[in-house]
Design goal:
Largest sheet: 7 strands, mixed
Distance between the termini: 78 Å
Number of strands: 22
Helix content: 25-40%
Structural class: alpha/beta
Radius of gyration: 23 Å
Number of helices: 15
Shape: globular
Strand order of the largest sheet: 14-15-16-13-12-18-19
């Protein structure tokens, strides 16, 4: 049984605490590794290593930092299949889906790092009196990245590019539920020692990292409850936090769209990765004119999402990450049925080992139900029939969350109106659309702090002004 280690200052080492956490394969319920529980001493060592490495890393020319990050990305790409297999083993994601997201994350890492070459780290404005004003953007120093279990590799890579390219060093703490792929990711690391450090553990490591006085920025992705604590801790220190938290993302479907094609797109958005995506489609509002055709097509589509071990060919719905997550899905479905909803597809667990739950479609739901107002994070598509597109937009906007939303419409006026949904990202006719130019900040309880494009570099740097005037004449 492998016991995982931390990476501190370029050296793999055991935790200073003996407590261990079992890493469980959710498809078999077998323990596949053990990871440290974490402690403050582990964090102190890693932060110290990051702080020591930061001045030399920041002193490198930007182009050299970008080249080193890009070389690491190329190495990761060569091992993408292996990393996808580890993600499958630790949290259940089908390997083909995992490979697709890892490939995308590698490309995103290179693109984000390359943006540093055109970012304005230094700009000078000359004045008629002969003086000049220089605007400098300095790296913050040692920073932290705390990632969730659902995308162990992509979430780490998505945060690291701008932080590293801007000259910061990083301590990474992945979720204790999926540490295997993160360990392998950093075994492939080819950056100078201490530039990136890895500490494993649960809240025993996460809390002291988020509240460490030498950590200048915390990039956290996780639950609203944990995010509030991170924000409070960084606020006390007057340090920065970028928080991407929960979502209850709506999809609004207008009349005039193709019901079958739209149902296929919604099924993918609701069921891929077993619904364990922050931007999964968790509330579906469909116009009454096409509702019957759409629901029938969605039910048929749900039946094509084969459930099983993510290592097996053709599997689209792997297990949920653990029993706790499956309990959440069970609870949401049971609550909806008790309040009058109808199960149109799925809803029956297989009598096998593993934390499986099938792709499930509910109709007859309303906002009183847990499935419509709490994050499910499972393969569940609750459908509400609305009388108009405007009603769909209005109901989609009734949420304390505001991460993302998707709208399907062919009407130019409705496309323009969709921008009113209070969300960081609104996709029109293409879920997960867009490229490296994407820039957003979550609304409501879904988080705070803009990310993407130049905003990531703005967050990773501190602006300062140096004004230079001619020497006064005698």
């Amino acid at each position: 049984m492998k016991t995982l280690q931390n990476l501190v200052g370029g050296i793999w080492e055991d935790s200073l605490d003996d407590a261990l956490i079992d890493v469980v394969n959710p498809a078999t319920e077998d323990v596949v590794a053990r990871a440290p529980g974490g402690c403050r001493g582990d964090i102190d060592r890693a932060v110290a290593a990051a702080a020591r490495a930061q001045p030399a890393w920041a002193a490198l020319p930007v182009a050299e930092r970008v080249a080193l990050i890009s070389a690491w990305a190329d190495t990761i790409a060569e091992h993408a299949g292996e990393l996808a297999e580890l993600e499958c083993r630790e949290m259940g994601k089908p390997t083909g889906i995992g490979r697709t997201f890892i490939d995308g994350a590698v490309a995103g890492l290179k693109a984000a790092a390359t943006q540093a070459l055109s970012y304005g780290f230094e700009e000078t404005v000359s004045h008629p009196d002969g003086s000049a004003t220089r605007i400098l953007r300095h790296p913050l120093g040692a920073t932290a990245v705390i990632t969730p279990w659902n995308f162990p590799v992509p979430m780490v890579l998505g945060a690291l590019g701008p932080l590293l390219a801007a000259g910061n060093t990083v301590v990474v703490k992945p979720s204790e539920r999926s540490p295997l792929s993160a360990v392998r990711l950093f075994e492939l690391l080819n950056l100078p020692p201490g530039v990136v450090n890895l500490v494993l553990g649960d809240a025993r490591a996460g809390v002291p990292l988020a509240e460490h006085e030498q950590i200048q920025l915390v990039h956290f992705t996780g639950s609203v409850e944990a995010g509030r604590k991170v924000g409070a801790g960084t606020g006390r220190l007057l340090h920065r936090a970028v928080l991407e938290l929960g979502g209850k993302d709506p999809v609004v479907i207008d009349s005039g769209v193709d019901p079958a094609a739209t149902a296929a797109a919604v099924a993918f958005g609701a069921f891929v990765n077993t619904g364990q995506i922050c931007t999964s489609m968790e509330r579906v509002y469909v116009h009454q004119e096409i509702a019957d055709e759409f629901i029938d097509a969605l039910v048929r589509a749900a039946g094509t999402y084969t459930m099983g071990d993510g290592h097996d060919e053709g599997v689209m719905v792997g297990p949920l990450v653990d029993e706790r997550q499956r309990d959440t899905v069970r609870r949401h479905v049971a609550d909806a049925v008790e309040r009058g909803a109808t199960i149109r597809a799925g809803g029956v667990e297989p009598d096998v080992k593993g934390f499986f739950y099938p792709a499930t479609v509910l109709t007859g739901v309303d906002e009183s139900m847990l499935a419509m107002n709490e994050e499910t994070f499972g393969p569940l598509a609750p459908v509400v029939v609305v009388s108009s597109f405007e009603e769909g937009l209005e109901r989609a906007s009734r949420s304390r969350f505001g991460l993302a939303a998707t709208v399907y419409t062919n009407d130019p006026d409705h496309i323009a109106a969709a921008a009113r949904i209070p969300a960081g990202v609104v996709w029109i006719n293409q879920w997960q659309g867009g490229g490296p130019e994407r820039l957003y900040e979550p609304a409501g309880d879904s988080g705070m702090g803009a990310t993407g494009a130049t905003a990531a570099y703005d967050a990773a740097t501190r602006p300062a002004t140096v004004h230079i005037a001619p020497q006064p004449a005698s």
